[in-house]
Design a protein that fits this description.
Length: 208
Amino acid sequence: MGIGQLAGFAGATVVLVGMPGPNNLYISLRSLTQGRRAGVVSALAIETGTLVYIVVTALGLATLVQASPTLYTAITVAGALYLAYLGLKLLKAPANDHAADIQAAPLGRVFRDGVVVNLLNPKAALFFLAFLPQFATRGADPAQLRTELMLLGVGALLIGLTLDLCYAVGADAVGRRFRGARTTSRRRNLIVAAIYLGLSAFALITAL
């Protein structure tokens, strides 16, 4: 890949991956409510899901999602329902006026939820399926094509991780004031739950 093509790949990846969506929202909310460490763990979780999509795309299995609108819709709905589940958990969480954080979940659960949020986002799979092949060698044999797609995917992952960490650090800076404010944990739960449920509703409207 020449310098011009590499610059084009990096620039397009920054724009497409950096656009706000379920992944960035999840990272930002964890940083806002639990601090930078949880945000960083969330970013690593999101990119772990991305790694799965890279392998799937390189093997050509993502074409199943593209070829089946029903499957795509089913995965989208599942992702929306999972976001709704996270929001409802916050609504049911017991209020504690002296709590410092919202839903201060163990980091293992933070990581697990992050991976699930990304894996239930079919747009991620379609992004890799539609975007990465544009920069691969035309007419390459299958082995070479898989290798190129893997390398391009790793490049996109590294760019995505950098952007995710920026979201985590930035949200933590805002969250320090948010967490330190004299706001009851119940009110904080309602704010974050509303964001999760709003995104879930938007995803359902888009899918159906």
